[in-house]
Design brief:
Elements (H helix, E strand, L loop, with lengths): L1 E2 L4 H9 L5 E2 L2 H7 L2 E4 L2 E4 L19 H5 L2 H9 L3 H28 L2 H10 L5
Parallel strand pairs: 1-2
Antiparallel strand pairs: 3-4
Helix pairs in contact: 1-5, 1-6, 2-5, 4-5, 5-6
Length: 127
């Protein structure tokens, strides 16, 4: 059990060290501040670069937020301090972490967790 660790890279490192239970507020905290986990890192939708971005928060994600709303729209919600922004980004961030942990469990079962971790860390570094 590891409390207070919730960044995707920390979860992967924790699993590599044999930790199997995590507890952290990070997915909701960063959502309240307009940020989202994405494949390769994290994006902050407060950034002006997303003002007209029609793509989903994470193009590889099938969560409610990503399948229905654009980065531009969610950025508008964030900038307007609409509670819906926090709800959508929290939904996305939790879905992202659930999918990550599911992928880690599959890698463990296949005996390729170290290979999975290597691929994961190669993809890091977005915003």
């Amino acid at each position: 059990y590891l409390m207070g660790v919730g960044a995707p890279e920390d979860l992967v490192n924790g699993v590599l060290r044999g930790i199997d239970i995590f507890d952290c507020v990070l997915p909701t905290r960063i959502a309240r501040n307009g940020a989202a986990f994405v494949r390769g890192g994290r994006i902050n939708l407060r950034n002006a670069r997303y003002t007209d971005d029609p793509s989903p928060v994470d193009p590889t994600c099938d969560c409610y937020a990503c399948s229905r709303f654009s980065r531009a729209y969610i950025r508008h919600l964030v900038k307007a301090d609409e509670i819906l922004a926090s709800i959508l980004l929290t939904t996305h961030n939790l879905h992202f972490l659930l999918r990550l942990m599911d992928d880690l469990r599959k890698a463990i079962r296949k005996g390729r967790v170290a290979e999975f971790a290597g691929e994961f860390f190669e993809a890091e570094a977005v915003d």
